[in-house]
Amino acid sequence: VGPVLREFEYSRDDKELAREELHIPPDAMVVSVLPGGWYTEERAPIADLVLEAFDRLPNRTKRLIWVAGACGGSR
Question: pTM of the prediction?
Fold first, then answer.
């Protein structure tokens, strides 16, 4: 079908609302990873690198949000 585009529901002004809805404390460091899907991770693995860097962050309160697409292939 191709890409489906929709208007994003949040703006920068909605930061506090989004954190509240996701139960993310206001003082938390948030790291988001959007690698594009499992195929990307198979070709250029970044999981170990990201997890090691995240663990080294000095912040006491932190959240890692990893968004990936569906697993492809015959798995």
Answer: 0.68
